[in-house]
Task: inverse folding
C-alpha cells in the first residue's frame, strides 16, 4: 500500500461530506438532519487541518478548525431550540410534515 | 507500511463505517451513538495530522457537548413511552445515486489535482502557538466569537423557554 499522504485525508473528508449530504436529504427527523450537518462540518475541519499540515500555512488552518467547532456548537444549540419549538407547535419533528408558515 | 499508516487506516475505518451507520440506522438513538464513534475517529485523525489541541477540543466539545445536546433533542422531541424512536426515510435510491456520483466526482477531482507537498511546518505541541495566534493576530475574531456564543446562549434560551 502507498504511504499515507494528503490524498488519504482528503478522501476521508469527501466521503464524510457525501454521507452528511445523504443523511440530510433522506432523513425525515429534524435531529437527524442536524447530525448530517455535523458530519459536513467535521469533513470541512479535516480539510482545514490536512491543508494546515501539508500546505505552507503554519497553524492558521488549525485556528480556522477551532472557529468552525465554536460555530458548530452555537449552531447546534440554536437549532435544537428551534426544533423544540417546532415540536411544541406541530407535535412532530418530521420535516416533510411541517409545511405551514403560520398557525 | 509503518505504524503511522496502520493507525491511520484503523481510525479511517472507524470514522467511515460509523458515519455510514449514522445515516443508515433507523433508530435515532443508535445514530447518535454511532456519531460518537465518528467523532472519536475524527479526533484520532486530527492527532495523526499533528493537531493535538484540536483533537482534545473535538473530544470535549463534540463528544461532551454537541452529542449530549443531540441526545437531549431526540429525547425531548419523541414520545418515548408510546412511540418507537424511529426516523422515516424518503427518496433513498435517488439520493444514493446522486450522492454516489457526487462522491466519485470529488474523489476524481482530488486525485487529479496536483497538490503541492510542503514539508510539515506543524510544531510538536500546537497549544502555545494557537494561543499566541488567538490572542495577537486573531484577537478581534476571538472577541467576536465570544459575543457570538453569548448571543447563541441567550437566543437558544429565549427560543426554548415556555411561553409566559
Result:
Amino acid at each position: 500500500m502507498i504511504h499515507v499522504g494528503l490524498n488519504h485525508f482528503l478522501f476521508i473528508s469527501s466521503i464524510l461530506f457525501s454521507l452528511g449530504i445523504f443523511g440530510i436529504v433522506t432523513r425525515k427527523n429534524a435531529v437527524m438532519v442536524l447530525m448530517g450537518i455535523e458530519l459536513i462540518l467535521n469533513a470541512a475541519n479535516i480539510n482545514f487541518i490536512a491543508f494546515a499540515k501539508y500546505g505552507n500555512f503554519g497553524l492558521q488552518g488549525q485556528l480556522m478548525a477551532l472557529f468552525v467547532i465554536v460555530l458548530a456548537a452555537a449552531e447546534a444549540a440554536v437549532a435544537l431550540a428551534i426544533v423544540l419549538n417546532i415540536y411544541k407547535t406541530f407535535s412532530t419533528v418530521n420535516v416533510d410534515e411541517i409545511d405551514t408558515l403560520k398557525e | 507500511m509503518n505504524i503511522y499508516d496502520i493507525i491511520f487506516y484503523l481510525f479511517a475505518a472507524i470514522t467511515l463505517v460509523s458515519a455510514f451507520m449514522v445515516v443508515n440506522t433507523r433508530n435515532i438513538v443508535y445514530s447518535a451513538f454511532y456519531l460518537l464513534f465518528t467523532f472519536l475517529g475524527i479526533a484520532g485523525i486530527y492527532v495523526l495530522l499533528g493537531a493535538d489541541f484540536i483533537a482534545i477540543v473535538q473530544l470535549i466539545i463534540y463528544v461532551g457537548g454537541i452529542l449530549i445536546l443531540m441526545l437531549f433533542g431526540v429525547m425531548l422531541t419523541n414520545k418515548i413511552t408510546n412511540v418507537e424512536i424511529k426516523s422515516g426515510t424518503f427518496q433513498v435510491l435517488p439520493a444514493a445515486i446522486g450522492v454516489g456520483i457526487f462522491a466519485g466526482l470529488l474523489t476524481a477531482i482530488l486525485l487529479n489535482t496536483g497538490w503541492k507537498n510542503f514539508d510539515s511546518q506543524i510544531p510538536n505541541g500546537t497549544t502555545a502557538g494557537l494561543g499566541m495566534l488567538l490572542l495577537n493576530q486573531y484577537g478581534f475574531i476571538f472577541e467576536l466569537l465570544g459575543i457570538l456564543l453569548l448571543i447563541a446562549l441567550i437566543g437558544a434560551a429565549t427560543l426554548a423557554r415556555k411561553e409566559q
User: Anything to note?
Assistant: Chain B touches chain A through 81 residues (CB under 8 Å). The two ends of chain B are 64 Å apart (CA to CA).
